[in-house]
Amino acid sequence: MVDPFAAPLPDPTPQLQALRAALTRLAGSTLPAPARMALAEAQMALSALESLYSGAVDRSVFDALMAMAGPEVAPELVAQMAADLRAVRLALAAALDGANWAGIRAQTHVLVALAGSAGARGLEQASQALNLAAHEADAIRVRALGPGILAGLDGLIRFVEAADSGRAAGK
């Protein structure tokens, strides 16, 4: 008899990506307030699911970035990325607290680039959703998405700082 719990689970990444794309398209449409709230909740739940599978960071993307940088530049790149992420974290938290739409847009713009280049695809996509919500001054979606994005950002900072420590120890 085959133990159904012993078999590895199939990779849900294609389905998660399809769901993310559908939610992103939906976020671009005009929705009544209850639907915007439901959309934000679905985006948060999807971000949580994405972080459960393959970790929050696709290590192969991060490693490819380090390989492109080369051994001389990689430590500096990782240290700068960690500093930039910490700066975004502080500024984004302040912008979220003050409902500063321009600040949220500016910080999520930077975060999309940093998360994408590090391989944090879920955080990148959630940041795009938050950026869109800030462009629309959609306080409901911003309040719903903000905490999850800050938590994801904290995880990415820990990942990059660990990579920075690992590279420093390897010198």
From TrEMBL:
<protein>
    <recommendedName>
        <fullName>HPt domain-containing protein</fullName>
    </recommendedName>
</protein>
<dbReference type="InterPro" id="IPR036641">
    <property type="entry name" value="HPT_dom_sf"/>
</dbReference>
<dbReference type="GO" id="GO:0000160">
    <property type="term" value="P:phosphorelay signal transduction system"/>
</dbReference>
